[in-house]
């Protein structure tokens, strides 16, 4: 008997399924009845959002109880559950609720629920049934993101899988929204295209409405939420901070910044500052500003700080920007600084350079040590995390206002081990540290980015978060495990290496939309997946750097190091030029020897690539130095111009073994005047002057054979140490320098009349001994 059957049973109970599916007929079946006030239920849920929607069904029955399950002619599903209230001998209220709807992709899901009553006498089953059709529509919420002043809003398209021949229609409740629904005649898939007309909108903010999607065959109706965010206009500079420096051998006292806005419209603006040592000069064209510093008005050996306000000339037209400026002025020569940390190892990813001060922050054990780039002096030591932990994973704010860090603490109690991740925010104005509570990100912060004038924390799993590490957005639809993430802020795009398929490494490009008012403040959409044409399918892409305008991509791979991008398609430009010679100290002669090397995988290994603030690529390569015993492997920083020309090189590490991963990590000062190199093999940090860059890397002479005379050419070597040396490989080249102008290389032709007519090639390797930097200048001689 079913006398005591007073509970609704879950669909996933196998025993119950057997009973329901074993229902048969009986001559007494007419003695039992069952009815419900609903014959169909329609649920609507937004993709990736949890829904607890519950629909009520009133049931009346005449029988020995109530059974609930799925009809034998439908598929049992886990996305609904059943509960009951008000259960009596002949009635009940049944609630059917969505479960885990956020796990389902956009689609129309259908099943059939069966309500049964009756009696069971031994093997005699006598039941009657009432079936209810249940549908769940998972759809992407329609979200329009647009900006004040724009008139054309791109339409939004959503595709829904549908396997029936039923007809559908779509209607909107707001006059500014027009939905158009089409159905594929073969696949039956539904395509919903929504268009928005904002011509009547006068107020910034969020506008909300909904689309009703109706099955006109069954009268089922589903609701899709719609929002439109009319965003603020942001006026912003391409650099949130400007770092200036004035020393005898490092001088950057003026720069030019570019201004733009997220509405891509012309805005008349004014730049102002209260600092009397700054001069602001708007340049022709309307979107650039020259910033110049007068060092006579600032104190020496300190960093002077100022702000520049950039505002629209029209009140309330755009949100203004503030560019911070720092100037370090000293009459003392800037020299290379070596920081030996002895037995204290630098923690993982625990070196950060301040963009606003000549400071470097280094994580050692549970401490953060603060060094001056110019003097190498240890200025401060902050206790950041619990004893026995390592403070690591540094992420610096682009304006140098704060630093993010984390530490993992492991504790053991009663033979149980627990791990806690502490995340910290260090205020760099006063070096105070606070622990971030209730963060919701799942991965480690990777960087802080500025997109459309707003700052976000980007994690290694491609999450966006606020400064308190609350997750704002995660693109689950395009999720993968990125090897490297790079942001091109001026183009609002993100590039990432996807090596998840070992047979096809790809660079993926995402476009980013930002809006202050929509539910998701930032969203990404995949626009490109690209594998370099010269790279074999099974070869990986190891590292990636992208210029701020996204026009040039530099990567580490076997056959491709430079890609160009025009906004639509990529061009694989192959490998960059590598060093053809390497300097070696000859112990026997106590001289510097210039050895030729061949560019092969055995002789040159490329580890990583970085970009400085001037968009100059810097490659970390290890070179097998010829004629050394034991074999010496020298890791060098190769500096290229924005035209992909090899300009200079710095020696960063020497070892007698070749490492699979880079033995050196680097970062840059914002002024690009310093390279901070961490030699992991020696636990040594070096504050190098950026490599000296000659004003030309190729000198050409055209001379007559009939009138031989000494010809000269002067090359400015830039910020080079005065004790530089030069090696030449041809007797017809002579080099010299004057004490009054130590950064000038004088090239003189001698005895070329003995060569005869023709074209001759030579080279000069200039070696900055103090900074272990070198550059090669090609010399071409045409004797006529």
Structural account:
The N terminus is likely disordered. The chain is 1% helix and 54% strand. 36% of the residues are buried. By secondary structure, the chain is an all-beta fold. Strands 48, 49, 50, 51, 55, 57, 60 and 61 form an eight-stranded mixed beta sheet that branches. A five-stranded mixed beta sheet has the order 18-17-24-23-20, with no helix packed on it. Strands 1-3-6-5 form a four-stranded antiparallel beta sheet, with no helix packed on it. The longest helix is centred in the N-terminal third of the chain and has 8 residues. The chain contains one helix and 61 strands.
Q: Poorly predicted ranges (pLDDT <50, ≥5 residues)?
A: 1-29
Which overall shape is indicated by the principal axes computed on the Cα atoms?
elongated
Using only C-alpha atoms, the radius of gyration works out to: 35 Å
> What fraction strand?
over 45%
Overall number of strands: 61
- H/I helix tally: 1
Estimate the mean pLDDT confidence. Answer: 89
Structural class: mainly beta
In angstroms, what separates the terminal alpha carbons?
A: 117 Å
Largest sheet: 8 strands, mixed
Give helix % range: under 10%
């Amino acid at each position: 008997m079913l006398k005591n059957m007073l509970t609704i049973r879950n669909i996933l109970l196998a025993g119950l399924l057997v009973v329901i599916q074993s229902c048969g007929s009986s001559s007494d079946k007419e003695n039992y009845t069952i009815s419900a006030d609903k014959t169909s239920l329609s649920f609507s849920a937004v993709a990736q959002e949890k829904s607890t929607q519950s629909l009520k069904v009133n049931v009346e029955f005449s029988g020995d109880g109530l059974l609930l399950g799925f009809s034998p002619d439908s598929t049992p599903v886990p996305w609904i559950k059943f509960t009951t209230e008000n259960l009596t001998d002949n009635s009940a209220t049944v609630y059917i609720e969505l479960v885990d709807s956020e796990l389902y992709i956009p689609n129309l899901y259908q099943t059939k629920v069966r309500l049964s009553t009756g009696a069971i006498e031994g093997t005699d089953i006598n039941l009657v049934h009432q079936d209810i059709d249940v549908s769940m529509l998972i759809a992407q919420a329609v979200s329009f993101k647009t900006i004040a002043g724009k008139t054309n809003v791109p339409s939004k398209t959503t595709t829904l899988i549908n396997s029936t021949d039923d007809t559908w229609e779509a209607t909107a409740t707001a006059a500014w929204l027009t939905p158009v629904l089409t159905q594929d005649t073969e696949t039956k898939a539904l395509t919903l295209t929504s268009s928005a007309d904002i011509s009547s909108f006068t107020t910034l903010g969020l506008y909300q409405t909904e689309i009703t999607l109706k099955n006109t065959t069954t009268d089922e109706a589903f609701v899709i939420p719609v929002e439109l965010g009319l965003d603020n206009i942001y006026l912003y500079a391409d650099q949130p901070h400007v770092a200036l420096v004035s020393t005898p051998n490092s001088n950057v006292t003026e720069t030019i910044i570019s201004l733009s806005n997220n509405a891509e419209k012309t805005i008349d603006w004014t730049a102002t500052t209260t600092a009397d040592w700054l001069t602001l000069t708007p340049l022709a064209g309307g979107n650039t500003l020259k910033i110049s510093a007068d060092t006579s008005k600032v104190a020496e050996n300190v960093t002077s700080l100022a702000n520049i306000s950039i505002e629209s000339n029209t009140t309330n037209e755009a949100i203004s920007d503030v560019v911070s400026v720092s100037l370090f002025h000293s009459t003392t020569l800037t020299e290379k600084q070596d920081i030996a940390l002895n037995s204290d190892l630098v923690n993982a990813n625990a070196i950060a350079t301040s963009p606003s001060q000549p400071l470097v922050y280094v994580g050692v054990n549970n401490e953060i040590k603060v060094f001056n780039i110019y003097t190498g002096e240890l200025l401060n030591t902050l206790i950041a995390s619990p004893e026995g932990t390592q403070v690591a994973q540094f992420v610096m704010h682009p304006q140098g206002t704060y630093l993010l860090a984390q530490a993992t603490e492991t504790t053991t109690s009663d033979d149980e081990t627990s791990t806690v991740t502490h995340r910290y925010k260090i205020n760099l104005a006063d070096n105070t540290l606070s622990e971030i509570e209730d963060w919701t990100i799942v991965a480690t912060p990777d960087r802080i980015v500025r997109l459309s004038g707003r700052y976000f924390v980007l994690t290694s799993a491609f999450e966006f978060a606020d400064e308190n590490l609350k997750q704002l957005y995660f693109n689950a639809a395009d999720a993968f495990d990125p090897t490297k993430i790079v942001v091109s802020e001026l183009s609002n795009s993100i590039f990432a290496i996807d090596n998840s398929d070992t047979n096809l490494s790809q660079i993926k490009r995402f476009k980013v939309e930002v809006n202050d008012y929509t539910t998701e403040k930032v969203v990404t959409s995949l626009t490109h997946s690209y594998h370099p044409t010269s790279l074999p399918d099974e070869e990986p892409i190891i590292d990636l750097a992208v210029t701020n305008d996204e026009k040039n991509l530099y990567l580490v791979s076997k056959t491709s190091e430079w890609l160009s991008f025009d906004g639509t398609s990529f061009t694989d430009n192959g490998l960059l030029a590598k060093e053809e010679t390497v300097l070696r100290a000859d112990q026997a002669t106590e001289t510097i020897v210039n050895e030729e090397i061949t560019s092969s995988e055995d002789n040159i290994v490329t580890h990583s690539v970085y970009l400085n603030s001037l968009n100059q690529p810097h490659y970390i390569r290890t070179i097998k130095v010829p004629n050394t015993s034991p074999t010496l492997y020298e890791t060098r920083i190769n500096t290229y111009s924005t035209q992909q020309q090899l300009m200079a090189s710095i020696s960063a590490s020497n070892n007698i073994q070749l490492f699979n991963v880079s033995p050196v990590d680097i970062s840059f000062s914002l002024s690009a005047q310093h390279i901070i190199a961490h030699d992991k093999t020696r636990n040594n940090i070096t504050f190098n002057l950026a490599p000296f860059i000659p004003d030309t890397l190729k000198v050409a002479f055209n001379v007559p054979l009939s009138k031989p005379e000494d010809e000269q050419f002067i090359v400015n070597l830039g910020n080079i140490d005065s004790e530089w040396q030069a090696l030449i490989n041809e007797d017809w080249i002579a080099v010299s320098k004057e004490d009054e102008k130590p950064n000038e290389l004088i090239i003189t032709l001698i005895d070329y009349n003995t060569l005869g007519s023709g074209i001759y090639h030579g080279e000069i390797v200039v070696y900055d001994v103090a900074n272990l930097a070198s550059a090669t200048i090609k010399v071409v001689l045409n004797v006529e």
